[in-house]
Amino acid sequence: MSIFEQLSSYDHEQILFCRNDDVGLRAIIAVHNTTLGPALGGCRLYDYATEADAVRDVLRLSRGMTYKAAVAGLDLGGGKSVIIGDPSMKSEAMFRAFGRHVQSLSGRYITAEDMNTSVEDMDNIRRETKWVTGSAAAHGGSGDPSPVTAWGCYHGIRACLEVIYGSPEVAGRTIAIQGVGNVGYYLAKYLHEGGASLLYADISQKRLARVVEEFGGTVLEGDEFYRANCDVLAPCAIGGIINTRTIPMIKAPIIAGGANNQLDDETRDGEALAERGITYAPDYVINAGGLINVCAELKNQSREKAMGDAAAIFNTVKRIINKAKSEGTTTIRAANKVAEERIEAVGRLKRLYV
Ligand code: NAD
Question: 227: CA distance to ligand 1 center in Å?
Answer without folding.
Answer: 20
